[in-house]
Amino acid sequence: MSASDVTNLWLAEALFRMGAVRFGDFTLGRSTVGSPIYIDPKVLLGEPRVLARVGELIKTEIDAGMARRGRRVQPFDMVAGVPFGGLHLATAYALLGNVPLIYAQPPTDMDHGPKIEGRYRSGATVLIIDDLMTTGGSILETQRALQDVSLVVHDAIVLVDRGQGGGDRLRATGVHVSSILNLTQMLNFYRANEMIGDDDYRRSIEYVQTHRASVD
Fold first, then answer.
1. What is the mean pLDDT of the chain?
2. What is the average per-residue pLDDT within 14-42?
3. CATH number, span 3-210
4. What is the pTM of this model?
């Protein structure tokens, strides 16, 4: 575990204390079926101070990724929040970093193409920000919407990676994903600090290990 991993674990604890991490039996769309753990980072909306710290955490991750030799994060002109979970995170970062923000409207039956909210120029480079990644489908949809209006995407930042193949799937499309936390890391932290019992830990770890999505 790196020094940055240890630093980020305050967020794992904060999410747990705020009720963002729940155990049971959850089915959320096609990518999360019968999961013993549910994570809802949107609870951060109710804690402005914590949300501001998350904005700082994202900025630190981005700055470190751009500063490293063989950059993990390529230079970008603006950020795009994935509606709706990633939008408040992108806003927190955009305000802190003074970076322009856009987002792709979720399509409706009346739409004939992507609708991008915010100002942008053709050919600009965009970094995508989302709150939770399972198979990477939401980020992929945003990438496609941005590409449809001639915007370029090299990288994405996610708050929590559930570790179910999303990073591999996006890498196959040319998008590098960095995560602030991953689910296995969070579960290990919770168990080590006796915040969860053996049964919830075992069931959740087994779910992650057996539900990795294949790369399309």
1. 90
2. 90
3. 3.40.50.2020
4. 0.91
